[in-house]
Every structure is written in structure tokens, then in C-alpha cells.
Amino acid sequence: MEKEPITLKGLKKLKDELIFLKEKKRPEIVAAIAEARSHGDLKENAEYHAAKEEQSHNEGRITEINDIIARANVVDVTKLNNEGKVIFGSTVYLENLDTGEKIDYQIVGKDEADLKNKLIYFQSPIGKGLIGKNKNDLVEIITPAGTKNFEIKDVKYI
Q1: Which residues contact 61 (CB under 8 A, 6 or more apart)?
Q2: Considering the domain 4-75, what is its CATH architecture?
């Protein structure tokens, strides 16, 4: 079983979701199935089939989260001393040299990656292009959208 790196925040988010799915969502679905059953003929009972499908999705996600947690290699970036170096879990402050746009990303694992929230997968083109670089480095990264040029303005471990 291959370990997957994850941040402390990412692990907490998964554990919170697991508690929600088990303690809140699961009982709601069981109640919905019981309610739908009481309506009689199950063959033509849309509520029953919808609730069973929701149950299947919920149980699948619970299994998936348990698997992720079992494979998690938690990286606490606040305990690492890597002044100025881009590592897993660090937050990188960049300036796009082509547009002047300033952007920051936290380098995270596959299960936490969320571009809208500036959480970038360490194996993505940008993640790979940044890891191992240092503050003030100029970086050229080839992405599916074309080549991007960045200057690493700062690296934080938060």
C-alpha cells in the first residue's frame, strides 16, 4: 500500500467529513429508506431507489476516506526547517512574470488539491515545477495552457 502525503489540515478535513457521513448522513439515509419502504411496492418507488442510491454513494465515500486515512503520510510543515525552499505543504508566493499577477499556492496531496482554494497537487505541472526551488528563484513551468514564468517571492510553512 503506497503512502500518500497529506497536510495536517487535509487530514482533519477528511476526518470531519467521515464523522459527518457516519453520524449524520448515514442515519438520515436509513430513515429515508424506512420511510420509503412504508409506502409499499418497492419496484415503482422512486424515493426508495433514490435513497438506496444515496446510501451506496455515502458508504462508498466512507470506504474511500477510510482508505485515504489508512494510506496517509501526514506532513506537518510547521515542524520542518526548510527556510526558503519549496517543499510539500509549504505555501509559495509567486509573481507571474508574463502578466505581473501575484498568486499563492499551497503544495498538497492528491486528495486535498483544489485549485479554487489555491491548493495545488504536488505532482501537477506547477507543483512539480516548484518543489525543490527556493525563494527568489525564477521558474519556467510548462503547463497544458502553455509555458508560464514565475518568480518565487516567498515561501511560508504554515
Answers
A1: 17, 21
A2: Orthogonal Bundle (1.10)
